[in-house]
Automatic annotation (TrEMBL):
Short name of any one Pfam family annotated for the protein: Lipase_GDSL_2
InterPro entries per record: CtCE2-like_dom (IPR037461), PCW_deacetylase/CE (IPR052762), SGNH_hydro (IPR013830), SGNH_hydro_sf (IPR036514)
Keyword Phosphoprotein appears in the UniProt entry: no
Keywords tagged on the record: Hydrolase
Entry-linked CDD domains: Endoglucanase_E_like
Record flagged with keyword Mitochondrion: no
Lineage: Bacteria, Bacillati, Bacillota, Clostridia, Eubacteriales
Domain SGNH hydrolase-type esterase: 135-323
Protein name: SGNH/GDSL hydrolase family protein
MF GO annotations: carboxylic ester hydrolase activity
Gene3D superfamilies: Galactose-binding domain-like, SGNH hydrolase
Length: 369
């Protein structure tokens, strides 16, 4: 049996998935489904991780030859983990190591890094994908509740799973390189509780701007991201569910200034027209922002996995964007609210994510027919 040797990432061919700060020593995994892909010919493979957290521990998963293999909670400090052992040493295995949980903005200590790879074999090149897709969203796109029993109500990182996420399903089906930028509870103009600070557009231009704490700042989370490094063919924006939920929540009040923010309803329970229009304007502005980053991508606003109440406002946002810019490479796509497949925390289950993934796969294939 050959000796197992340790390699740093610059020493081996690989493909990084997700936004990075440019460092491979170590590789920091910021967002959902961020990870490392390898092709290795050998009988065993090990990975060295470093992790930390105060409240929400990171989880990670392994895929071998395109199929889910195992899932683990990261341990604090540095640990050496076996991906596989005893496999045919002559066969090439495609391995993907990815972060299963989202960037935890409420935990400034939360971090997950890959330090090194160990094998008794050799590494082969990993070709870049021709199809590149960006997914932007909230808890749905973070995979919240797509794992765990339906009765579970705890908000903990154990119940987030990138593996069961519609974005990863699309990636596997179409052999696409994907990036996911999502945060549970956040929206276009405000979060689920009307907090305007929980909005994706203001922080989207940073590497991972929703993170806080000295550790994440030192890792570059607040630095402007260089979008020229990776240009997608499609950008799917799955935001609006939390903005919609905020219409049924009390006003948010800034404890320092006393200023308030609220998406209101009228006396008959309908969406307040002024607030609905503000949301549509915010969605249009975000489309313009994205076009500045991605000049050639098709921008597709997807919505509906947890209701369609804001669908008319999103359609208006798309129409306004086209009218104001002359850009026709954008559209609204309604997804199925798969009610029979609600899962943990009343979020879409793995079955609902399959439904959404199949709809997006069909859409992309039709676009490329």
């Amino acid at each position: 049996m050959s000796e197992v040797k340790r390699y740093t990432l610059p020493e081996v061919p690989h493909l990084v998935h997700g936004r990075t700060n440019g460092s491979l020593t170590p590789l920091t995994l910021f967002w959902t489904a961020a990870g490392l892909e390898l092709n290795v010919r050998g009988s065993e493979l090990w990975v060295e991780f470093t992790a930390d957290w105060d409240i929400h521990e990171p989880w990670y998963s392994f895929m071998v030859n395109g199929e889910f293999f195992s899932r683990r909670m990261a341990q604090k400090g540095t640990e050496r983990v076996c991906v596989f052992r005893g496999m045919d040493p002559e066969k090439v295995k495609n391995v993907r190591i990815f972060k299963d949980t989202q960037a935890m903005n409420a935990d400034p200590e939360s971090v997950l890094q890959i330090n090194a790879i160990e094998t008794d074999g050799e590494f082969l090149p990993v070709p870049e994908r021709n199809l590149k897709i960006e997914f932007i969203g909230d808890s749905i796109t973070s995979g919240e509740g797509d794992i765990g029993a339906k009765a579970e109500t705890d908000w903990i990182s154990m119940f987030f799973s990138a593996e069961n996420n519609y974005a990863v399903m699309v990636s596997r089906a179409l052999n696409a390189d994907i990036r996911v930028s999502s945060q549970s509870g956040w929206g276009v103009c405000c979060g689920w509780n009307n907090d305007p600070n929980s909005a994706i557009p203001p922080i989207y231009g940073q590497l991972c701007g929703l993170l806080s704490g000295e550790k994440n700042i030192a890792l570059g989370a607040k630095e402007p991201y260089d979008f020229t490094k990776w240009q997608p063919n499609y950008v799917f924006i799955n935001l609006g569910t939390n903005d919609c939920g905020a219409f049924s929540q009390p006003a948010w009040t800034d404890e320092t200034t006393g200023e308030t923010f609220q998406n209101r309803r009228t006396e008959d329970g309908k969406l307040n027209p002024e607030d609905e229009a503000r949301f549509a304007h915010g969605a249009t502005a975000f489309l313009k922002q994205l076009r500045g980053y991605y000049p050639n991508a098709r921008l597709v606003w997807i919505y509906g996995m947890l209701g369609l109440e804001l669908a008319p406002a999103l359609q208006k946002a798309i129409d306004d964007y086209k009218a104001e810019t002359g850009d026709t490479n954008a559209e609204f796509l309604s997804l199925t609210d798969d009610l029979k497949n609600r899962g943990c925390r009343d979020h879409p289950s793995v079955g609902a994510h399959r439904t959404a993934a199949n709809e997006l796969i069909t859409y992309i294939k039709k676009q490329n027919a």
